[in-house]
Write a structure and sequence with these properties.
2 domains, Tetracycline Repressor, domain 2, mainly alpha
């Protein structure tokens, strides 16, 4: 089988890609802390001029869309990795949840829902994520390792809730988030327990939070 060698980026393109990643990292930090922050705060946090930022993103809305799209890509990669894991079904699911917490899945949703326009591509990707997560949950339930009431909306809200824990510095905050994730995973793992009150959030309810 022939393979095509990846052509390395030129120095200028590589530097532009690094600058873009710096801007997006700064934007995640700034808007997670303060969703109403101006785009100039992102430039200041990234250590770049506002004109350099605007050359990449025409508006705050466009930057927020990019952050949300990046977050969906990272989440989708994690759920697909869990589905590809042929080992213990519970460990695959629990590992997926831990990795999602570490990559910040749900953190921007918690802070930015409703603050930018959702594109058709983002909506389609959201449905793809919903279906993939459903497959992961169903597989874990079939193995007898997950409460039958747990649905995709429960996963989304759980991750958002955990990212709402903002105590101490970054290291302490991460430890606390994982502490409470461990408790929640124990609760999800208990099958045959008393039925949970009320239904989980629906796709329409989760999607509706992005509407202005």
């Amino acid at each position: 089988m022939e393979t095509t060698a990846r052509v390395p980026m030129s120095g200028r393109k590589a530097q532009a890609a690094r600058n873009d990643e710096i801007i997006r990292q700064a934007a995640r930090a700034v808007f997670t802390a303060d969703p109403g922050a101006p785009i100039s705060a992102v430039a200041e946090h990234a250590g770049v001029g506002i004109s350099a930022l605007y050359r990449r993103y025409k508006s705050k809305d466009e930057l927020l869309q990019k952050l949300a799209d990046d977050g969906m890509d990272r989440y989708l990669a994690e759920v697909e990795a869990a589905l590809d894991d042929d080992g213990d079904a519970w460990e695959a699911f629990a590992g997926f949840m831990r990795r999602c917490l570490d990559i910040g899945a749900g953190s921007l949703t918690l802070r930015l829902a409703g603050s930018f326009e959702v594109t058709e591509d983002m909506s389609r990707k959201g449905q793809e994520i919903h279906l993939a997560t459903t497959r992961l949950l169903e597989r874990t339930k079939e193995a007898g390792a997950l409460r039958p009431e747990i649905e995709v909306g429960d996963v989304s809200v759980t991750l958002e809730y955990l990212h709402g824990i903002r105590i101490g510095d970054d290291e302490r905050m991460n430890l606390l988030q994982h502490r409470y994730l461990a408790l929640m995973l124990d609760a999800m793992h208990v099958t045959g327990a008393q039925e949970l009150p009320g239904p989980p959030p629906t796709w329409q309810e989760l999607r509706g939070r992005y509407d202005d």
